[in-house]
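ok new one. same drill as before - structure tokens go in, u give me an amino acid for every spot. 653 of them this time. try not to just spam alanines like last time pls lmao
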């Protein structure tokens, strides 16, 4: 932690200084309210006494003096009322930042200093050029005692009662000294030559108050700095311990238990590479200059003048980012960027969004597949801290919308469309999982798959997988996983650091169920807490299959059940699923126009036979899914789209 400024005592770190000021904010407001209430009470009492006793003579000079005193007292009373109202009115109080509050409190105390002289019986007529002895009916004993004591009260109150930084009180101290000197020496003090002695003593009192306030503030700042150092040291120690534990868990030389899943995958673990320095830079997100250098070296940096965006054409948006249309090299593209209307309060979330964008770059720059959205490059603004992804513009509805609406604008949904969506998604996952190191998508769901018209098969759809913000590479020390609660695997909720391909297997099984039936895996009315509890406790309900046993559902249901199993070892990998899909295509090709190109050889009958799972429903299953009508699940799913969004949130752990 950087040392404080020797003169002002300010922390060199702006955030630490803001925290110090904010820590005293409530006390400043409360004590200022008390001071304003006391001043207002004293002024009301003094005003009442003057009205009752009326010590002024019935002369023009006396009336003007009384008017001055009453006007100043009314102004002070009004100012105290404004201070009290501003402090007690919470909306206005929230609109004022802590530094502005500190300045306004100092201004309030500054106004009090000359007001004490203008309300004094001696200095009020002297300010107007009158003789004080000719103003009042009774003889008065004139002295500076009252005004000097009032100035001392102002100084002591601001330095001991109000926890304001000493550097902010300098204007008040100067005003108090100059005010006393001006009225006492220029207007004329009743004490005569002894005014110099009183002024010197008052200056000494102010200097002692300054020293005391500064000493108190030094101790306060040292205590805060010590607290920050202790918490920083504790956090660093916990971070080192967590890294050491993660390294121990992922150490390929560790001796796994014989027969365990770790033992079976020991060879794979030993072959997993470490995260490269390039990937570290992309995962960090704080060094955009280094990322720009990497982009130039790998030739995916797009200069700003090469990209033309159309902000009015929004293709999609989320909490802190959006996707808009644009042109790159006279080609229509999709530009993924952060929202420009975010406030300072959203700065942390905006940076998290940029980290997600950089993670997409980290994955997509090495990915090339017909069923994965193509990555053209990115623009990077180092000064603004902004990153924009330039992606292939995929025209078509998302898979979830296509299923819920029962087709596109030109024709109804067909069984071949459902089968094509499943096979294309499986192809994309087979490709990602076969990379070295393997890539886990981590957020597989219907809204992250776009169904465009297949250029090779007129009238057919082709699925494109996108949104790799939560994707992970299976290196030795992978980043924690996340996902969307409706589709995420149970082990990700229990231990997000246990990254594996099986998480995609599970999400793919749930997604295939939705594509086949139009029913969400969880009942749309289920609360988030109930779903999280079911995932953590491995208490998932059976999938709510409809009673109508269509041919495609009957073919796919066995492997969908296995992929959706809560037991990791029971799930099928994507190449195995592709072989079952090949078998399904061979069986249904006579009844449906199914594209079987690119599918592997079908499984043999002995290898492909699987036991038919039993029908059941659980606490989280949709009870309406047991309807005997084939259209019921589809209509129920359409009405569930908005309510099911309660479970469609990104899970970042």
């Amino acid at each position: 932690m950087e040392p404080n400024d020797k003169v002002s005592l300010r922390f060199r770190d702006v955030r630490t200084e803001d925290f110090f000021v904010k820590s005293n904010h409530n006390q400043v407001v409360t004590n200022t309210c008390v001071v304003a209430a006391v001043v207002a009470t004293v002024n009301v009492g003094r005003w009442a006494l003057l009205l009752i006793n009326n010590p002024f003579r019935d002369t023009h000079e006396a009336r003007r003096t009384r008017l001055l005193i009453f006007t100043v007292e009314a102004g002070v009373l009004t100012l105290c009322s404004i201070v009290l109202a501003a402090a007690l009115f919470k909306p206005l109080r929230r609109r004022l930042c802590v530094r502005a509050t500190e300045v306004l409190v100092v201004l309030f105390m500054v106004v009090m200093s000359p007001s004490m002289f203008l309300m004094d019986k001696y200095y009020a007529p002297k300010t107007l050029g009158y003789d004080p002895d000719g103003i009042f009916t009774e003889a008065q004993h004139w002295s500076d005692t009252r005004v000097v004591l009032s100035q001392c009260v102002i100084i002591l109150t601001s330095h001991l009662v109000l926890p304001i930084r000493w550097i902010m009180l300098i204007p008040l101290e100067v005003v108090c000294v100059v005010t006393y000197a001006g009225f006492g020496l220029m207007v004329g003090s009743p004490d005569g030559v002894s005014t110099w002695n009183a002024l010197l003593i008052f200056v000494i009192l102010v200097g002692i108050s300054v020293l005391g306030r500064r000493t108190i503030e030094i101790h306060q700042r040292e205590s805060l700095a010590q607290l920050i150092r202790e918490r920083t040291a504790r956090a660093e120690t916990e971070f080192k311990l967590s890294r050491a534990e993660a390294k121990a868990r992922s150490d390929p030389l560790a001796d796994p238990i014989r027969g365990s899943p770790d033992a079976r995958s020991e060879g794979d673990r030993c072959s997993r590479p470490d995260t490269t320095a390039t990937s570290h830079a992309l995962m960090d997100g704080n060094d955009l200059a280094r990322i720009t250098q990497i982009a130039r070296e790998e030739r995916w940096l797009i200069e700003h003048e090469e990209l033309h965006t159309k902000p009015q054409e929004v293709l999609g948006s989320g909490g802190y980012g959006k996707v808009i249309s644009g042109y790159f090299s006279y080609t229509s593209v999709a530009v993924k960027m952060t929202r420009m209307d975010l406030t300072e309060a959203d700065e942390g979330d905006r940076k998290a969004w940029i980290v997600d964008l950089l993670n997409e770059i980290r994955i997509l720059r090495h990915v090339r597949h017909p069923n994965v959205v193509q990555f053209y490059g990115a623009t990077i603004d180092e000064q603004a801290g902004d990153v924009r992804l330039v992606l292939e513009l995929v025209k078509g509805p998302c898979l979830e919308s296509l299923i819920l609406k029962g087709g596109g604008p030109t024709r109804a949904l067909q069984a071949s469309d459902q089968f094509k969506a499943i096979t294309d998604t499986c192809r994309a996952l087979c490709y990602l999982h076969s990379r070295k190191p393997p890539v886990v998508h981590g957020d597989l769901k219907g809204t992250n798959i776009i169904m465009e018209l297949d250029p090779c098969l007129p009238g057919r759809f082709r699925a494109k997988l996108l949104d790799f913000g939560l994707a992970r590479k299976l290196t030795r020390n992978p980043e924690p996983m996340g996902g969307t609660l409706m589709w995420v695997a149970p082990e990700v909720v229990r231990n997000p650091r246990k990254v594996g391909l099986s998480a995609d297997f599970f999400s793919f099984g749930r997604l295939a169920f939705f594509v086949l039936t139009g029913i969400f895996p969880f009942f749309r009315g289920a609360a988030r807490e109930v779903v999280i509890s079911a995932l953590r406790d491995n208490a998932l309900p059976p999938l709510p299959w409809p009673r109508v046993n269509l041919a495609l559902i009957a073919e796919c249901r066995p492997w969908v059940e296995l992929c959706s199993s809560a037991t990791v070892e029971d799930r099928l990998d994507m190449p195995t699923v592709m072989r079952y899909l090949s078998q399904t295509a061979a069986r249904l090709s006579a009844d449906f126009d199914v594209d079987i190109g690119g599918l592997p050889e079908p499984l043999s009958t002995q290898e492909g036979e699987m036991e038919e799972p039993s029908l059941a429903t659980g606490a989280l299953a949709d009870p309406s899914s047991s309807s005997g009508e084939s259209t019921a699940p589809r209509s129920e799913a359409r009405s569930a789209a908005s309510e099911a969004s309660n479970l469609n949130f990104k899970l970042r752990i």
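Residues 251-275, 605-646 have pLDDT under 50 and may be disordered. and btw The chain has 23 helices and eleven strands.
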